[in-house]
UniProtKB/TrEMBL annotation:
Residues 15-154, 183-319 form the EamA domain. GO terms for molecular function: transmembrane transporter activity. Keywords: Membrane, Transmembrane, Transmembrane helix. This is WAT1-related protein. It is found in: Membrane. One of its GO terms (cellular component) is membrane. It is a multi-pass membrane protein.
């Protein structure tokens, strides 16, 4: 395999790792901004609006170069649904849940996304499931192991392996007042909406091969719908004013990293690899959250985190192996079918040659 082929094959893997890092960073940064008093509804509207404005000249440039796609009513309808489910409803539930709980809980409950997506993909026949096949067994077992590991990280601490003295800022972030139950419920709803959005986005990406066009309209509809909902949910005019630097930083970071970068590369990965492959990386979020907390927030490292992280890693690679084995099996069946067809034709050719030789 040459270098270009290797990079092309490794691109989805590297991109999805970066996406998970970006999402965990966004959860932490948005929580810090909301602790300063920023409304989660205002945050959603502002960063999606800024991201859409950044995408606007890119969208026009693509169309000017002839790389755009023909916009049909069917596509507009799907863009609208993506904006409603993937931005408006999903982000309202997600950031309200983070506001009531914590980024770590958000990363942990986010591990429900692979379960919901796998069930939906199998139900809609977008993913094959044959429990007699080792590849399907590996995918199912890997998903269960990864989610179990995430639950261990969240629910079991154990003795401290590395003890640090957290800063005042991290103390405030970790000990902020919360409504854990309501936050957890909203984050679970977010996981279900994310799974539905991934399935819909994968189907839309096949109909609309240009990622920029899809993400632009997806973000545009999501911004408009979020603004309509947020005006009613956040009626205080003062809440729409930005008072702290962290609020501006969070909005710019979210616009660039999520609306522009994440949505574009996720659309590409959904079309290239499918929704189950994309959500397979979700269990890594809890590991990334743990590492970021240890590095930047002064969190302690506990035995439960190490055990859970090891289980998540093992489950993750089990699913990846299952998907690779499934592709190899399909390729082997295609070759076997071709050889079988060739063998059936071979005796006929041989007998024909023999009869010609006999007459000669």
């Amino acid at each position: 395999m040459d270098r270009i082929s290797f990079l092309k094959a490794a691109a989805p893997f590297m991109v999805m790792i970066i996406v998970e890092c970006v999402e965990v960073g966004l959860s932490t940064l948005s929580k810090a901004a909301m602790l300063k008093g920023m409304s989660n509804f205002v945050f959603i509207v502002y960063y999606n609006a800024l991201g859409t404005l950044i995408l606007l000249p890119i969208f026009f440039y693509n169309n000017f170069r002839g790389k755009g796609v023909r916009i049909t009513f069917s596509l507009l309808y799907k863009f609208f649904l993506l904006g409603l489910i993937g931005i408006c409803l999903l982000q309202i539930c997600a950031y309200t849940g983070i506001n009531y709980s914590s980024p770590t809980l958000a990363a942990a409950i986010g591990n429900l996304i692979p379960v919901f997506t796998f069930i939906l993909a199998v139900t809609l026949r977008m993913e094959r499931l044959d429990l007699r096949n080792p590849s399907s067994q590996a995918k199912c077992l890997g998903t269960i192991v990864a989610i179990s590991g995430a639950m261990v990280v969240t629910l079991y601490k154990g003795p401290s392996l590395i003890t640090q003295t957290p800063s005042d800022a991290s103390n405030k972030l970790l000990s902020a007042p919360s409504n854990w139950t309501l936050g957890g419920l909203l984050l679970a709803i977010t996981s279900l909406l994310s799974s539905i959005g991934n399935i819909l986005q994968a189907a839309t990406a096949k109909e609309c091969p240009d990622e920029v066009t899809l993400v632009f309209f997806y973000s545009l509809f999501g911004t408009v719908l979020s603004a309509v909902f947020s005006i009613f949910l956040e009626s205080d005019p003062n809440a729409w004013m930005l008072h702290h630097r962290i609020e501006i930083i969070a909005i710019i970071y979210a616009a660039v990293s999520t609306t522009v970068f994440r949505n574009t590369v996720i659309t590409w990965c959904l079309r290239e690899k499918g929704p189950v492959y994309v959500v397979t990386y979700k269990p890594l979020a809890i590991v990334i959250a743990m590492i970021m907390g240890l590095t930047f927030l002064g969190d302690n490292l506990y035995l439960g985190s190490v055990i859970g992280s090891a289980a998540i890693t093992a489950g993750f690679y089990s699913v990846i192996w299952g998907q690779a084995r499934e592709k190899d099996d399909l390729a082997a069946k295609s070759v076997s079918k071709f050889e079988s067809t060739y063998d059936q034709n071979a005796p006929l050719l041989k007998s024909t040659d023999d009869s010609i030789c006999g007459r000669a």
